[in-house]
Write a structure and sequence with these properties.
- The structure is a single chain.
- The chain has a single domain (about 30-375), classed as Zn peptidases (Aminopeptidase, 3-Layer(aba) Sandwich).
- Helix content is about 35%, strand content about 15%.
- Helix 8 crosses helix 9.
- The protein is of the alpha/beta class and about 375 residues long.
- The structure holds zinc ion.
- Zinc ion binds near residues 83, 84, 87 and 218.
Length: about 375
């Protein structure tokens, strides 16, 4: 009889473990469903990245590309959101654009979840949360994911001890996990690891569709030196500088910086060196990404207010001018969309032979008045 009591104890332990696993599996599987997008009437096609890198077919990296073609000949603007899924304003600005853009010359392509796999997990032991919810004007809600800056190890494993990317960037020592970072593996490799295949898909998309200009939207922790800064490949520096000046005239801080000559694998360097597109990358302030942030919750993600960072700024430890009431998500989304709109204006001055014309949510002040609840549309 005694030996059977051990059996029951073992079964009990297994049953409890299975119960926890089932609850966790439900949560993890929910993160594999992309946010619905209520695309604007101008949407002409939703393409898949596997059309540009066949090896992505059937993988988590086979992501959607929202294509808005005016039907009027011109240039093509590619907008990348979600290269780093924990930098929420990137994905949110891309979705807001897809829901509100009206293109009247050339084409605009929007990829809200550039590292789709990164959206399926969060950073372990960082107290991260996986989702946040906003309420719209009509009272309905929309929920968005907060992911990890790297590809999920479930989709790409193990990280190699030594790796040399197609850009020549070597990943060794503490950098080995960066083999899962989309923004280290450009121009990519169609037969490489999943993250490299995504990079190769984007490079092929730029080549085959003759993309004129690209914005890769990012956010940085308050400690980062390049906030409110647009990195630009040398061929894009005139356009980015004009955009920065234009933003400055609207009272919005913006710097244009030349992409580092050895920033191998990063979009603004390695896609600029290996395609004809003008490459740019912009960063906004995100206090939920830095080590000084307090409790991670919807309030921190949506309102971007972390008193520790305000104090650190007052004490002279944070160079960035942190505002007392923080920098909410709507402000960071507006900054990205205004930056892209003004990049388009600057591009048209330099390249009038291949124009790109669109309107999207108006000015920075217009978006601030609309708020998150007005910028996003209800979904069924
Ligand atoms: Zn980033």
């Amino acid at each position: 009889m005694k030996k059977y009591s051990y059996l029951w104890k073992n079964i009990l332990v297994l049953a409890v473990a299975l119960l926890f696993a089932a609850v966790a599996a439900h949560d993890f599987l929910a993160m594999r469903t992309p946010e619905p997008v209520a695309a604007s009437d101008g949407l002409t096609r939703v393409a898949k990245l596997s059309e540009y890198c066949a090896n992505l077919k059937g993988t988590v990296g086979d992501e959607e590309i929202y294509m808005f073609d005016s039907g009027v000949p011109g240039g093509t603007f590619l907008v990348l959101g979600g290269t780093h899924p924990n930098e929420s304003a990137g994905m949110m600005a891309a979705i807001a654009m897809a829901e509100n853009i009206e293109v009247t010359a050339g084409r605009v392509f929007i990829m809200p979840w550039t590292n789709t796999s990164g959206f399926t997990h969060t950073s372990p032991l960082d107290g991260m949360q996986d989702l946040f919810t906003i309420t719209l004007k009509d009272g309905s809600t929309r929920t968005f994911r907060v992911g990890n800056r790297l590809t999920n190890p479930v989709d790409q494993w193990p990280d190699r001890n030594y790796y040399e990317g197609t850009s020549g960037r070597k990943l060794v020592g503490t950098e080995t996990a960066e083999i899962r970072n989309v923004n280290r593996l450009y121009p990519g490799n169609e037969n490489g690891v999943l993250t490299e295949q995504v990079c190769a898909g984007i490079k092929n998309l730029i080549d085959r569709e003759n993309v004129s200009i690209v914005m890769d939207m990012h956010e940085g922790s308050p400690e980062f030196f390049y906030l409110d800064t647009t990195m630009a490949h040398e061929r894009a520096l005139n356009v980015a500088s004009l955009m920065a000046m234009d933003m400055g005239m609207d009272g919005l801080d913006m710097k244009a910086e030349l992409s580092g000559q050895t920033s191998y694998g990063l979009s603004h360097r390695s896609l600029g060196d290996n395609t004809n597109a003008l490459m740019t990358l912009m960063e906004t302030y995100n206090p939920s990404m830095g080590p000084l942030h307090g409790k991670m919750d919807d309030d921190l993600i949506i309102n971007g207010n972390e008193p520790n960072y305000y104090q650190a700024h007052l004490d002279g430890y944070i160079y960035y001018r942190v505002k007392e009431n923080g920098i909410p998500l709507i402000e960071r989304i507006a900054r990205h969309i205004v930056c892209i709109t003004k990049l388009k204006d600057a591009y048209n001055l330099y390249y009038p032979e291949a124009p790109i014309e669109f309107t999207c949510l108006g000015s920075y002040d217009d978006m601030m008045k609309l708020g998150l609840e007005g910028v996003f549309k209800p979904v069924k």
